[in-house]
Amino acid sequence: MTILTRELLCQLAEFDTPLLANTVNSIDPTPAHEFYLGGSIQSVTPQLGPTVGIAYTITLDSSTPEGAPELDEYWKQLEAIEDEDLPVVWVVKTVGSRPDHECVIGDGMAKVLAAAGCTGLVTDGGVRDVRGLLTVPFAAYCRGQVIHHCNLRFRRAGAPVEIGGITVRTGDVIHADSGGVIRVPHSCVEELPERAIQMLAFERDAHMWLRRTDLRASEKHLHVQELLAKYGFAREKAEIR
Fold it and tell me: Which sequence spans correspond to the domains of the chain?
């Protein structure tokens, strides 16, 4: 059983998300379509660098005009995040009737979340007050900026959610930066820092061959295959991107 530690998550923060995605794809049997989020989820705070933590999931309707606020689930989840020993990434699935009008947080809510131990947000809704988010600092990965919201109705804290085309569960490891968002499979998270270092070295060596103009493509392909063997990556899965 994988035991997550703050030290392990801090080690993962040393790497960019595309590199980790390549590494996961090369060492773990999880199909790629099950761990990387779609391109509709983008960073609006790219200055903040990698965001790493365990997911705390919840659903939110912030766009439907009718109805009173429902905040009990939100405040209960905040208390759970306060009691969590590991850094948290808040994962919010929006379920309102007007998807383009979903606004999940502003800088005020970000300050409450950050104080509780949350490092960032992943959502298929929008956010506002981006300049304020940067000052907290609080990272946001979302569909873009939305200026306002209707009454907030939080529901189903802790239940699995579908975000960006993949399923995220509370306790999943999330890694995100300006390149995108991935869910790190528990089956490879412990070995990922060491293997990411090897992937970094492989890519450095491979790119030196790929840039050369005195070699034909077939020769470059041969050298890359040799490097895959040298660094211990599965040839059938590893690719140059």
Answer: 6-184, 192-231
Question: CA–CA separation, 48 vs 76, rounded Å?
Answer: 28
pTM (predicted TM-score): 0.95
Task: Judge if the upstream peptide bond of residue 87 is cis by omega within 30 degrees of 0.
Answer: no
**6-184 CATH:** 3.50.30.40
Per-position DSSP letters for the chain, written without gaps between them = -----HHHHHHHTTS-HHHHHHHHHHH--S-GGGTB--TT-EES-GGG--EEEEEEEEEEE-S-SSS--B-HHHHHHHHHHHT-SS-EEEEEEE--S-GGG-EEE-HHHHHHHHHHTEEEEEESSEE--HHHHHHTT-EEEES-B-S--S--EEE-TTS-EEETTEEE-TT-EEEEETTEEEEE-TTTTTTHHHHHHHHHHHHHHHHHHHT-SSS-HHHHHHHHHHHHHHHT--TTT----
Q: At what angle do helices 217-231 and 192-210 cross, to 10 degrees?
A: 160
* Predicted confidence band of residue 2 (pLDDT cuts 50, 70, 90): confident
* Whether 26 contacts 203, CB under 8 Å: no
How far apart CA 139 and CA 121 sit, in angstroms, is 6
Spatial separation of the C-alpha atoms in residues 209 and 224, rounded to whole Å: 8
Report pLDDT digits (tens) over 94-115: 999 999 999 999 999 999 999 9
Looking at the DSSP bridge assignments, the partners of residue 177 are: 180
